[in-house]
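Following up on my earlier thread - several people asked me to post the actual chain instead of describing it. Fair enough. Here it is, all 211 residues.
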Amino acid sequence: MNKHILLIIVILAGLFFNSCKNKSSKNIKIEVSKEVKTEKEESIPIEEKEALVSDFVKQSVDDELADKIKSYITTKFLTEGDLELIPEGQRQFQFYQIDLNNDGENEVFVNLMTSYFCGSGGCTILLLNNQLKPITKFTVIRTPLFAEQTLKNGWRILLTKSEGEFKEMIYNNGTYPSNPSVIEKAPYDAPSGHAEIMFDINFSKPKTYNF
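Reply from S.P.:
Thanks for posting it. Predicted structure:
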């Protein structure tokens, strides 16, 4: 009888030991799970940092192109005398890439938006081809600038507001009109809903670069 009681005690002790071991194993699994969760939470700031790229419209973000435009501005467009007159804090530009003639190559608008290039009628904007050769120098133009999907003479119609009216700039003889203030009012009061908007802080915020 005593042997049977002893055997029962041994069996119960074994079961209790296994139960404790299983609970310990479960606790280990929980701790590992918590560590994995912590690693995921630490990765969130990195994702948020990468998302900052979306703060600017993609057609205005290209550091390699920006360096080429900077070289063009400082060595071909401006003289040394110009550069001496422009404070370093105002040596800024923005650009926007767009295919205006459906040839598969982007033209580039360069917005020289600081006070040295601006007057009461607007600012200077350059239009360059994909080799950064000049097409048009817009002398007094306001942003935003609109590019309609409609082509005339093989190039997209451009719209800007001048003296309270929208002006339609049509490509002709290798260039666009340089001064919209001398152009007649467009035959409509606003851009179409299909127009591409350039240099607008709300719809196509561009990145700003220094030269």
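Residues 2-55 form one domain. That should answer part of your original question.
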